[in-house]
What does this fold into?
Amino acid sequence: MSENHKETFITKYIFCQDHKMIAKQFLITGMLMGIVGMVMSLLFRLQLSNPGESFAILEWFLGEKWAPDGVLDPNMYLSLVTMHGTILVFWVLTAGLTGTFANFLIPLQIGARDMASGFINMLSYWFFFAATMVMIFSLFVETGPASAGWTIYPPLSALPEAIPGSGLGQDLWLVGMALFIVSSLLGGLNYIVTVLNLRTIGMSMMRLPLTIWALFITAIIGVLSFPVLLSCALLLIFDRSFGTSFYLSDIIINGEALHHTGGSPILFEHLFWFLGHPEVYIILLPALGMVSEVISVNSRKPIFGYKAMVYALMAIAFLSFIVWGHHMFVTGMDPFLGSVFTFTTLLIAIPSGVKVFNYLTTLWKGSIRFTPAMLFAIGFVSTFITGGLTGLILGDSALDINVHDTYFVVGHFHIVMGVSAIYGMFAGVYHWFPKMYGRMMNKKLGYIHFWITFISAYGVFFPMHFLGLAGLPRRYYTNSEFPMFDNLTDINDIITFFAILGGLIQLIFVFNFFYSIFRGRKAEKNPWKSNTLEWTTPIERIHGNWPGEIPSVHRWAYDYSKPGADDDFIVQDVPLKEGETEH
Amino acid sequence: MNKNRTSKQLLIIGIVGIIMFFAGLTSAYVVRKAEGNWLEFVMPSWFMLSTIAIIISSILLWISVKRVKADKSSFIFIFITLLLGIFFSYSQIQGWQQLVSEGIYLTGEGSNPSGSFLYVITLLHLLHLAGGLITLCVSTINAKKGKYTSSNYLGIELTSIYWHFLGVLWIYLFLFFKYI
Amino acid sequence: MTNILIIVVILLIVITLVQLLRVGDLLSEIKNVDNNKVTDKDNNTQAFLFFMIGGVIYLALVIWQIKYWGIHILPPASSVHGETIDSLMSVTMALILIVFFITQPFLAWFTYRYRRSKNKTALHYAHNNKLEMIWTIVPTVVLSGIILYGLSVWNKITMSDYSESTVIELYAKQFNWTARYSGKDNNLGKSNFRLVKGANILGVDMEDTFSKDDKITNEVHLVVNKPVLLKFRSQDVIHSAFLPHFRVQMNCVPGMTTQFAFTPNKTTSEMKTQEGEDFEYNLLCNKICGVAHYNMKMKFIVETQEEYDAWLASKADLSEKLITSK
It folds into this structure.
């Protein structure tokens, strides 16, 4: 039964409890923040490849204080780098990815009217919104936004005397992140409980689409890891504002010896990376799940090795908790620990590899339809292979000695997160847009968006591996102080060129997205001829999702091109025919 | 949708999150302690009173829920639970003052991480307990209004799950600080 | 004024795009064709594009980059352990390049070969446990090999016997490095951050007998083929001592002392002959530490024993340099 209740503008769009609207709130906030983060990267790339040069656009964006005479201030450089990382990792790739698709797809794909608690779901978005406001506000404070890197290691992040951004900017960053963590946790509660309890009749766990498995496991990872970041941040707040010595010891800053003794910055790193590493899998897993869906639907084939894919997701999730030390190989920790973390880190390659091989086999002997979503899904596989392989070098402690904190790392994590995971997100948006808005996105603009992004992304991040192997450190305002890097300027110029090209082309996507909401071609109910339940709902979208009874499920989600079937797809709610066996 | 079941699960998973939060803090404590420069001291005696108070409050709350399920009045039991919760908060503050008078400080000259951790962790527990106090207030008022019956007791049940959790968490922290 | 102009131009571009799209939609309505549907032509074009761009051109460019940019990477290591790292790196790189050049062509080929075309249906092939076993077990075996190799290199590096090493301290602060040689007793004197005052920039405890023969320098000279143990301290925030040519990196953390032992095996003059007269061994900071993080440098010079002795002799002992204050 659809829930008919009188809706005002406020209850329909603002304090909405319908999961589909909340999903869109996350998506649009994430997209807008993505633009902000992307512009930041273009600003600092300008400085990097043209050190000390004057750019009017820098002064236009940053004002006379932070870009005097058009030259980027070094403190603001570090702020831009910090906020770019923070915004993209958390606002776009976590909230924008999970917040959108977990909210949108979970009830629809499992056959539920809405999440277990619409109220908690709504709170989850509004905490996110509050976090966003705090972060945005922090960009405008006088001493500048946080600037100790998105990883905010103390003492740099604890002492305003060490860097101006560690003043009010860092306080606001911490508050914003605390609100963000609460938002994530509230969301995660719903995702887990909804998947466990609200599946429709016949929807057993092993009939769930892989997207749901991925989102479900992601939520579990989040509940277990985000609270530790909160405790980590809280201890930092105490050190900053209440003079405790959890992380600080033996410091002289600005000629003054501080009273702190007994603290350990390494303790911070342990606590931070205990979240930090699972966080990147919180980013990756939803993309893996959605790509499984998009590849399968557009190849007209079942995803190859469904069970193996589920177990691989679980293995990756489990392993993600025991590898955090690979971010700390050069901190001077006990070498034995270094060995342990090398071992566990390289193990993660195994389930990741299984997933890649399964994607390839899904494509094999398929009948591939090239929607923009499918292109991004295939692009995901390409970049996941590339980025994943360089992880084998970084995960090896002995090799990490010379590439830690160089551009080799920057190249690696951008290719797996900033490219792969974003491709997963794009694939998701293009693929589920008809269900979200009842209209189709423009295909040609989608193709242009894909190709220019694909070329630019590789153009920006692949060369970085060479910069890293040349010894170029990250987070350097300019590379011109060490003659050993003088011959790298050509590579840097190419990177900046593709960064600008790739960054600007995203505007085509934004344009396509908003244009199509209002003027896109009206969509039919199941434009991709997909098996999953969300495509059985009416195209107009109603509260409670289905006008009558919720469909019961009789089969798994991957009966594509099944021999003996009338069509090359069989929706999950179609009962088995006489003599038909289930997969 | 079975609202009873889903509400309880939502609460329990939230509790798992809170457990991970305190797991992070207590791991930090263990790691830091192993590095030395650790001032040993005795737990304030007020914390023993805290422990007793919270155990009794849980027992009373458990009795309350049993009575509600049997359609008996529970107001007085819940009310006393609330009072004990308030006493718990009072005893925590007294405990901290006891620490200060013994020269164990949160911060500043003469402070040591061992003290800082105790203050911060017990403070955070108290903040979570504040949430528990609010739900206890609501439950007390509802009980007075006669809202809880054998067929409608989700609110008091959720309150009691959370409150028992806070009690167990306190006992864990108390024993942790005493023996680790 | 320019700002308004910019905003107007952007608005005009957006409006143009909108109108273009609407014209396209109207045209297709007139022709009664859905121009937004993915056609066979699209499948052919996109599949071909992916095969070429995501396959052929991508792989060709990777090879091009390796050839033309590979020359920019660091020269072979100038230390004993560094050579073992370089070997491990070559083996691991070879492995990942092999996997890369097998999987990417498969991806590009399958994408093209299995593009949708009329009358060809997809094969309903849902699982094959044998295949899963193969591509679980083979990577596990290969990775185990790499892990064991990597760990043996790591153990040799971190658990080497450095009892014969010359001990040198590197002190990091915003925004420079200072070195302290331990002198003839090969023992660094104790230090305490509260003793940093005036000329005692490292806070050395002059009451400690070991401190007397320590020497403070702003350059590091090392003897070729002689093992050295670097000890690291920091005054304010986390820094990281990065000596890329020696394959040495270690964080400098306030409140603790970290260390790294290695043996340089190529002199600076050898490297100048090899890499050009401008070559220098550099110490860089490699952990974000503040506004001048990009400009924390110190020169390292590897030379013969005689050159080293002459240089070190010219540096004053701390006992001469600092007057012990009561």
User: Anything to note?
Assistant: DSSP finds 17 helices and two strands in chain A. Residues 74-110 of chain A form the longest helix (37 residues).
